[in-house]
Amino acid sequence: MTADAIVFRDVVKRFGDVTALNRTDFAVAKGEVLAMLGPNGAGKSTAVDLLLGLRKPDEGTISVLGTDPAKAVSQGRVSAMLQRGSLPAGARVAEIVDLSRRLYGSVRSLDEVLGLAGLDGIAKRRADALSGGQAQRVRFGMALAGKPELLFLDEPTVALDVEARQHFWRSVQKVAAEGTTVVFATHYLDEADENADRIVVLNSGVVVADGPPSTIKAVATVRVVRCVLDEPDLNDLQGLPGVVSVEVHGQEVALRCDDADSTVAEMYARYGKLRDIQVSGAGLEDALLALTSSGDAR
Ligand SMILES: Nc1ncnc2c1ncn2[C@@H]1O[C@H](COP(=O)(O)OP(=O)(O)OP(=O)(O)O)[C@@H](O)[C@H]1O
Known about the structure:
This protein is α/β, with parallel strands linked by helices.
């Protein structure tokens, strides 16, 4: 028996000439919220397909909830909200969610699922009359209905507006607090930063970083220097030592630097007065670019 919800060991998956996963290795502890990040073609969806038992690895071993992925799914312990998947056109939202509940043995009440998925106001609406974001919320409700031990979310917030996104992540945190392990893939890095306990970064099918968001962000050596200048000169700023890129909005200047100390020293020497100067660490986006710039499997 293992305390890990997922063990993905030395996994290789090929599609003809393309090696989508190349000795991919990671584990996810029970109750953890894990974000899988990486550029297009990095292998995230392939990993999720293997974890759901939809495909078999060519090499390596995969264990889900202590057993084979397909078995864990057939036992009703795993559910997924995938990018694809249509809804039954003539059925109403509450009927669709209720069917999922009953398939999984009605562990949560219908009201609870509708509330978690943000569907209370549209429970009677027909599936063919839903907007993209509403249909996405129905898929989330279906995935939550059985109170799964393990929940996969593939690009879950793509069609959601700001309010629906906030509601979505509150519900994810709620089910995670109840003990559900959550694995999600996204290109919205701020959502991974705010909601994941841990991030696994894939690039060309290889895990290139694995740790809490703060550890992943520390990889980026880039710093951002912001200040206010009376008459900022774009060319002059671009020529400062250590500057990677420059943004100027009126008198406000933002410089991305790979050697912020040298940049700031030269700015004081050249301009004398620097107002409202701030030096901050770069975000997850810079870290991800630093980690994955060497290859995109597209
Ligand atoms: N059924 C398939 N047949 C052939 N190649 C495939 C198939 N599925 C995936 N691939 C290839 O495997 C690689 C990994 O694809 P995958 O969809 O897992 O990436 P991803 O990280 O999910 O990308 P995205 O962020 O674009 O969704 C890509 O090069 C892709 O073209």
